[in-house]
């Protein structure tokens, strides 16, 4: 697949050693690329290169095959959705007006803007009654949904999201995350997301990028980066002692099933369930193997020893 | 933080004014101070009514603001009416030039009572709006009903009414013109100061220095300066500039109003939070759009507050225009000073104060209305 965003030989120099060094990264079209790393690692800086809020001291950023340095920054930015942690809603504009900012900049007709705003509010489960409210009267979760709606308003092919689900409780956070995953699935947008939440990163990423002190330390799929061999810093960042369990959550029962008769009385599990669910079931029932079912009929067995692909080696 | 017991202190001062100093003075003509008259001698048993209403308002002030305001308004009304009623008998048998003037006790009482009223109305928003209207209506009723006609200020007013009305109108026009001049000069400079930090430092210091020059000195110094300028560039004289009159008054007043206006623009434009500006930039707003759609609306409360300060300053400072021949209420004040005629000074100064308070109140109302999107 073609790279939607390509960082080639990028360095950013903020002086006193801060910035980015030797960044090479391809974000394929339709990817959901998650940037993780300690505070100050340069995640936001990397993201802000894409909409030219940061200018590299060396290297090029290409978007859809075109060097962004050759593009008018204003026009470039209007084609990119941008959501930030502090949300950045205009306090003197209503919810509907905030969502409509980019469409208005692009000169859409009034009717089209209204339709789009309504559709986005429905999509992000925002009560239509909120449309006329000012941001100070929103909860943190509502504000973040509005921020997301605003970023999506002009239907950009690329979305930049810098810790978009910062200030909300874990339950709302999970709901927002599911919505983002659904939007990604349905629209196939290329998304660059920064998060400090390892669980969120592993769940959402199709491409996971680990950064440290201005460099990319590792990049790959969540499965690749959670493998035993990965760098200790990466393992620590992605979950430490809990990492084996997070990894099981990424794996499916289907991939570890072996044909044959399971033990008698073994509990049943669906082939599409995660291996973490399988482990949970084993612990609950004190079982060492499970019956794997597909559409209700048994297709094989899953043994404890087969979890996390160990049975195959 | 515990708030100071304001009302008891003010009430004590008001009582001091009522009981401790001369309330009225009877003078053979308008230029001498005359013999003082205590409130007992002038108002008789009405003093008791006023004092009772005043004292009663203190304990109920925090919990029953409306009742406290009513009591204070009643105290004020009774005191004014009784003073007005006391004057004609005092003048009986005196020459026609004789006058009954308000004494220091009267003014102390009036001032502290007005402060008590503001303080009493403070806890209730509705009261803050209605109390001044009721007060004005009461004063208007007393004035136009003739209750105060025999007091010297009213006598002075009747003698000067057309002149005073002209002066008031001219004062308002001059103040408005000075404000307009200040806006034209300093709003663009404020914008520039916001954009360029070097400019901000230089302009800020310069305008700060202007504030340090005593107003009287600035008004005075402008005349020879303008004279020199007009001699050097005769064309300016033909354009209507003069060394005395409105020109120096407008320039000096505008220079003073410059600092609050300029500062308001600089601070107001910078009031938009950084991350908000950055979000706007990231969405593809041009910097001109960010100025108009973000910085200006978010700075509006600050702009308005500085406009209010500058306007009040213009109204007050324009009084000094009387010194340089610009006319206005200041001319009346200085005429009164030259004659040692207290009533004439008050006749010029009171409208300045009332005008400033009125404009301040109206602009505050506008400020309150505008911030719909804020808490
Ligand atoms: N405009 C700037 N000027 C100077 N230094 C900057 C600038 N922007 C970022 N930096 C520095 O660059 C480094 C990386 O910052 P960046 O915001 O990209 O970190 P981050 O990974 O997003 O951190 P966090 O997780 O805390 O948001 C930091 O040391 C920061 O202080
Ligand atoms: Mg960051």
Count of runs of 4 or more consecutive helical residues of chain A: 12
Biggest sheet layout of chain B: 3 strands, antiparallel
What ligand molecules are bound, each kind once? Answer: adenosine-5'-triphosphate, magnesium ion
Q: Please give the domain count of chain B.
A: 2
Derived from helix and strand composition plus strand pairing, the structural class of chain A reads alpha/beta
**Strand order, biggest sheet of chain B?**
2-1-3
CATH architectural label of the largest domain in chain B:
Orthogonal Bundle
Q: How many runs of DSSP E, i.e. beta strands of chain A?
A: 13
Return the structural class of chain B. Answer: mainly alpha
Distance between the termini of chain B: 23 Å
Shape of chain A: globular
- Name of the top-level CATH class of the largest domain in chain B: Mainly Alpha
Question: Which band does the percent of strand residues of chain B land in?
Answer: under 5%
Whole-number mean pLDDT of chain A: 87
CATH superfamily annotation of the largest domain in chain B: MetI-like
Radius of gyration of chain A: 22 Å
Shape of chain B: flat
- Order of strands across the biggest sheet of chain A? 6-7-8-3-9-10
Rg over alpha carbons of chain B: 25 Å
Approximately how much helix is present in the residues of chain B? over 70%
Low-confidence stretches of chain B: none
Structure description:
The complex is a heterodimer of chains A (313) and B (375). Chain A has a six-stranded mixed beta sheet with strand order 6-7-8-3-9-10, sandwiched between helices. A four-stranded antiparallel beta sheet of chain A has the order 2-1-4-5, with helices on one face. Chain A is of the alpha/beta class and 313 residues long. Chain A is built from twelve helices and 13 strands. In chain B, β1 (24-27) and β2 (35-37) form a beta hairpin. Chain B has a three-stranded antiparallel beta sheet. In chain B, α4 packs antiparallel against α5 and α7 (152-195) runs antiparallel to α13 (287-317). Chain B contains 15 helices and three strands. Chain B has two domains: 6-152; 161-374, MetI-like fold (Orthogonal Bundle), CATH 1.10.3720. Chain B has 375 residues and is mainly α.
């Amino acid at each position: 697949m073609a790279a939607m965003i390509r960082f080639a030989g990028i360095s950013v120099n903020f002086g006193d050693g801060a910035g980015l060094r030797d960044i090479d990264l391809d974000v394929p079209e339709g990817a959901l690329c998650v940037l993780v790393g300690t505070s100050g690692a340069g995640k936001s800086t990397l993201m802000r290169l894409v909409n030219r809020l940061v200018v590299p001291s060396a290297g090029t950023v290409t978007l859809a095959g075109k060097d962004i340095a050759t593009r008018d920054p204003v026009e470039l930015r209007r084609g990119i959705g941008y959501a930030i942690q502090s949300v950045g809603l205009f306090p003197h504009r209503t919810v509907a007006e905030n969502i409509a900012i980019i469409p208005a900049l692009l000169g859409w007709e009034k009717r089209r803007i209204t339709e789009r705003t309504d559709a986005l509010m429905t999509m992000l489960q925002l009560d239509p009654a909120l449309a006329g409210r000012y941001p100070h009267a929103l909860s943190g979760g509502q504000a973040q949904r509005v921020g997301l709606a605003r970023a999506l308003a002009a239907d950009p092919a690329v979305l930049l999201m810098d810790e978009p689900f910062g200030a909300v409780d874990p339950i709302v956070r999970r709901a927002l995350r599911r919505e983002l995953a659904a939007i990604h699935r349905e629209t196939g947008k290329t998304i660059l997301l920064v998060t400090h939440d390892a669980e969120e990163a592993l769940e959402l990423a199709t491409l996971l990028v680990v950064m440290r002190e201005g460099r990319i330390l590792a990049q790959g799929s969540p499965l690749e980066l959670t493998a035993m061999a990965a760098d200790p810093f990466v393992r620590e960042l992605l979950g430490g002692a809990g990492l084996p369990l997070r990894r099981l959550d990424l794996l499916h029962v289907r991939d570890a099933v072996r044909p044959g008769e399971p033990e008698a009385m073994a509990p049943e599990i669906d082939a599409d369930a995660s291996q973490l669910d399988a482990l949970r079931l084993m612990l609950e029932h004190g079982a060492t193997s499970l019956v794997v079912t597909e559409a209700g009929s048994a297709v094989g067995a899953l043994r404890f020893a087969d979890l996390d692909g160990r049975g195959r080696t | 933080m515990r708030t100071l017991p304001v009302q008891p202190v003010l009430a004590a001062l008001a009582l001091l004014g009522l009981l401790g100093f001369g309330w009225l003075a009877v003078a053979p003509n308008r230029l001498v101070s005359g013999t003082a008259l205590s409130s007992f001698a002038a108002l008789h048993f009405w003093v008791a009514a006023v004092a009772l209403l005043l004292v009663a308002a203190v304990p109920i002030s925090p919990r029953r603001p409306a009742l406290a305001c009513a009591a204070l308004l009643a105290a004020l009304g009774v005191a004014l009416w009784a003073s007005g009623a006391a004057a004609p008998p005092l003048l009986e048998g005196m020459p026609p030039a004789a006058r009954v003037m308000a004494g220091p006790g009267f003014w102390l009482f009036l001032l502290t009572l007005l402060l008590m009223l503001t303080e009493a109305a403070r806890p209730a928003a509705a009261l803050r709006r209605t109390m001044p209207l009721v007060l004005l209506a009461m004063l208007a009723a007393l004035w136009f009903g003739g209750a105060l006609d025999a007091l010297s200020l009213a006598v002075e007013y009747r003698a000067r009414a057309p002149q005073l009305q002209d002066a008031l109108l001219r004062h308002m026009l001059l103040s408005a013109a000075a404000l307009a001049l200040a806006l034209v000069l300093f709003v663009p400079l404020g914008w520039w100061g916001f954009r360029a930090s070097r400019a901000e430092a230089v302009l800020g210091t310069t305008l700060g220095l202007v504030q340090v020059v005593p107003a009287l000195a600035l008004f005075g110094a402008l005349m020879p300066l303008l004279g020199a300028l007009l001699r050097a560039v005769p064309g300016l004289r033909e354009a209507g500039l003069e060394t005395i009159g409105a020109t120096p008054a407008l320039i000096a007043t505008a220079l003073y109003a410059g600092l609050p206006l300029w500062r308001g623009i600089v601070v107001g434009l910078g009031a938009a939070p950084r991350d908000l500006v950055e979000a706007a930039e990231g969405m593809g707003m041009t910097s001109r759009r960010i100025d108009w759609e973000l910085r200006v609306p978010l700075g509006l409360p600050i702009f308005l507050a500085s406009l209010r300060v500058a306007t009040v300053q213009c109204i007050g400072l324009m009084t000094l225009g009387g010194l340089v021949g610009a006319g206005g209420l200041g001319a009346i004040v200085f005429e009164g000073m030259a004659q040692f005629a207290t009533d004439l000074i008050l006749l010029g100064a009171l409208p300045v104060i009332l005008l400033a308070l009125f404009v301040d109140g109206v602009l505050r109302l506008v400020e309150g209305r505008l911030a719909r999107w804020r808490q």
